[in-house]
Design brief:
Shape: elongated
Strand content: 15-25%
Helix content: 25-40%
Radius of gyration: 20 Å
Strand order of the largest sheet: 1-2-3-5-4
Number of domains: 2
Order of helices and strands: EEEEEHHHEEEHHH
Distance between the termini: 48 Å
Low-confidence stretches: none
CATH class of the largest domain: Mainly Alpha
Number of helices: 6
Structural class: alpha+beta
Largest sheet: 5 strands, mixed, barrel
Length: 254
């Protein structure tokens, strides 16, 4: 097989044996790629710190017939977001984004819009976007790009407008309904006040850089995280560990 080259974001890496690493990338041209970086643990001369999570690299690799793991030949650093992760809470939020990307990136399929989403959000956070809006932006657009974000402006049941009074994400129906159709909460439901839906509308309308300095109604972003986590669990049937680490760091609970 010929060597392939593409721009990529490092999502995660873990040791393989005494000297190698298995690295997961979100690539611009081929979706999610997992490969073995030979000697990456034993010597830093070949890869250096280029395999740190969320580094943007020029990736060179060979696909190996009959193997799910590519052979990583090179990863030249194009852009580092390492400094964003030096502060523990900020690092935990970015770890959440990397875990979500790992779960939703299409394996060995072109997924350039998702690559551009992750890159744009990281750059906006580096340039001053607050962590809350940045994380919610990535979560909401992850769901949108993969076709699983329910409509947030009209009731799933009656078609009524949700923007004035808010709604409820009804997990059994898999959609957002108005309070006339479902007056109270049901087990596992997520309340979405009008401020949360207004924040979601801004996220879906603007680029992440346009939200730098933007203020949202108090309590608007929390319900969007609850919506995203509920949908993530329903779609993947697992809870993302990085969110639990973030909650422990903040001393909060679900």
């Amino acid at each position: 097989m010929p060597m392939r080259e593409t721009e990529a974001m490092v999502l995660r890496s873990h040791p393989l044996g005494e000297s190698d690493r298995i690295v997961t990338f979100l690539t611009r041209s081929s979706g999610k790629v997992r490969g073995v970086a030979k000697g990456a643990r034993r010597s830093r001369r070949r890869f250096g710190s280029n395999l740190e999570p969320l580094s943007r690299v020029r990736l060179s690799y060979f696909e190996r017939e009959g193997s799910e793991l590519a052979r990583i030949e090179g990863a030249d650093l194009l852009e580092s977001f390492y400094r964003l992760q030096e502060e523990p809470e900020r690092g935990a939020v970015l770890a959440c984004m990397a875990e979500v990307a790992d779960a939703f990136a299409r394996e060995q399929q072109e997924d350039e819009p998702y690559f551009r989403l992750l890159h744009a959000v990281l750059r906006a956070i580096r340039d001053g976007l607050d962590l809350g809006p940045g994380a919610r932006y990535f979560e909401i657009w992850t769901l949108r790009l993969h076709g699983v974000l329910p409509p947030l402006t009209v009731c799933e049941r009656c078609g009524g407008d949700l923007t004035a009074r808010g709604g409820i994400y009804h997990r059994r129906e898999g959609g957002v309904v108005c309070r006339r159709c479902v007056p109270g909460s049901t087990p596992g439901s997520v309340m979405l006040p009008k401020g949360a839906l207004a924040a979601a509308a801004a996220i879906l309308k603007d680029a992440p850089a346009a939200l730098i300095g933007r203020s949202f109604a108090p309590g608007a972003l929390g319900p969007l995280q609850g919506l995203a986590e509920a949908l993530f669990f329903d779609l993947t049937e697992r809870r993302f560990k990085s969110y639990e680490v973030l909650r422990a760091l903040r001393g909060t609970s679900r």
